[in-house]
C-alpha cells in the first residue's frame, strides 16, 4: 500500500509541475510569444521616455540594449524559451536611487502599453504579478554624495 501512495504522490507532483509549466507557457502565448513581447517592450519604452516621472532615469541608458534585455526578461518570466543575458537586477539598480514611485510609474507605463496593444486585463495582471517581486531588487535609497 505504501508503494501505491508513493507512486500517487509522485504522479501528483509531476502533474502539478506540468500544470505550472503549462500555465507559464500559456502566459508567454497570451502575450503573443516573442513578437508580442517585443511590441509590449517597444511601446513601453516609448511611454517611459515621455513620462515626466521617470524619463530622466533613462538619460544615460543604452535604449536598444534596455529593449533587448526587457524582451528577454519578459520572455523568460512568462515561460518563453528565451535566456536572460543581462546582469543581476540588484547589482544593476543598486546605485541608481530609484524610488518606489518611479518603480510604480514604470509598471503603470507597461500596463498602458499593454492596453494600447489590446492585451486582456487578466493577462496583464499575470505578467505584473511576476514583475512585482523585482521591486526589492530595483528600489534603493539614493546614494549619498
UniProtKB/TrEMBL annotation:
It holds the Pfam family Bac_globin. Heme binds at residue 93. Residues 1-20 form the signal peptide. InterPro entries: Globin-like_sf, Globin/Proto, Hemoglobin_trunc. Keywords: Heme, Iron, Metal-binding, Signal, Transport. This is Hemoglobin. The keyword Iron applies. GO terms for molecular function: heme binding; metal ion binding; oxygen binding.
Amino acid at each position: 500500500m505504501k508503494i501505491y501512495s508513493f507512486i500517487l504522490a509522485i504522479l501528483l507532483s509531476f502533474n502539478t509541475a506540468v500544470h505550472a509549466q503549462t500555465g507559464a507557457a500559456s502566459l508567454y502565448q497570451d502575450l503573443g510569444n516573442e513578437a508580442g513581447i517585443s511590441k509590449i517592450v517597444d511601446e513601453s519604452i516609448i511611454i517611459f521616455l515621455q513620462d515626466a516621472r521617470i524619463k530622466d532615469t533613462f538619460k544615460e541608458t543604452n535604449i536598444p540594449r534596455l529593449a533587448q534585455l526587457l524582451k528577454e526578461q519578459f520572455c523568460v518570466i512568462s515561460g518563453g524559451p528565451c535566456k536572460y543575458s543581462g546582469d543581476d537586477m540588484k547589482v544593476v539598480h543598486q546605485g541608481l536611487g530609484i524610488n518606489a514611485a518611479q518603480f510604480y510609474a514604470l509598471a503603470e507605463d507597461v500596463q498602458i502599453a499593454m492596453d494600447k496593444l489590446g492585451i486582456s486585463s487578466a493577462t496583464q495582471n499575470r505578467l505584473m504579478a511576476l514583475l512585482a517581486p523585482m521591486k526589492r531588487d530595483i528600489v534603493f535609497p539614493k546614494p549619498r554624495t
